Amino acid sequence: MRLLIVEDEKRLAVSLARGLTAEGYAVDVVHDGLEGLHMASEGDYDLLVLDIMLPGMNGYRVCAALRAAGDDVPILMLTAKDGEYDEAEGLDTGADDYLTKPFSYVVLVARIKALLRRRGRSGGSPALTVGDLRVETAARRVFLGEVEVTLTAKEFAVLEQLAVRAGEVVSKARILEHVWDFAYDGDPNIIEVYISALRRKLGAFRIQTVRGAGYRLVAGR
């Protein structure tokens, strides 16, 4: 899952990004409303964490602009305000949830997971089945038959990208975009390390290499 944080309090934004990255999400951060709107419009994000009081363009206007363009990405709005009017205004512009600062990080993560589960139910089952492999995207658990397989956060994120497009070729570029953030400038072959780990844990036959194109997750040999 790829998240965008639009928050002008840089220490808070960095802290949230570190925590959410540790949870297994790919996280991009911007500190300006206009840049946030551009990133959200151009990128393929699974959820936005959007502050209201932003330079350039406030969160209300960013949210309204995305909804007017037909973008239904889940939006969790953050604000230092706590009045009912502010919450109503945020929800009226199309936000999906609202969290008042200061907030508990645990609550933030719970709200994010709830929004992603809700989107999973509306767009398809949060449990992805490929043969005897089951990937529970909301619970972030993987099973081979009845046996649970333990994966690291990054291993799970790579597998999830393959599972949501099972049978299709998924390019390295797409995996990088959704599992690592846009600022990643390391070796793209890092993906091969995680593919190798997944093959060891799940069976090499499940992940096919399509030379020059990417990888394909399949049900059987």
Please characterize this protein's 3D structure.
There is one protein chain. This protein is α/β, with parallel strands linked by helices. The protein is built from eight helices and eleven strands. It has helices at 10-22, 33-42, 59-68, 84-92, 105-123, 153-163, 172-179, 190-202; strands spanning 2-6, 26-30, 47-51, 75-79, 97-100, 127-130, 133-136, 141-144, 147-149, 207-210, 214-217. A five-stranded parallel β-sheet has the order 2-1-3-4-5, sandwiched between helices. Helix 2 runs parallel beside helix 3. It starts with a strand and ends with a strand. Residues 121-125 have low confidence and may be disordered.
Summarize this entry quickly.
The chain has 221 residues and is an alpha/beta fold.
Mean pLDDT: 84
Calculate the terminal CA-CA distance, rounded to whole Å: 28 Å
Proportion of beta-strand residues: 15-25%
Runs in which pLDDT lies below 50 for 5 or more consecutive residues are: 121-125
Enumerate the strands of the largest sheet in spatial order, edge to edge or round the barrel. Answer: 2-1-3-4-5
Can you summarize the main beta sheet?
5 strands, parallel
Helical content band: 40-55%
**Count the helices. How many?**
8
**Structural class based on helices, strands and sheet pairing:** alpha/beta
N-to-C SSE series? EHEHEHEHEHEEEEHHHEE
Identify the overall geometry. elongated
Q: What is the rounded Rg? A: 18 Å
Tell me the total number of β-strands.
Answer: 11
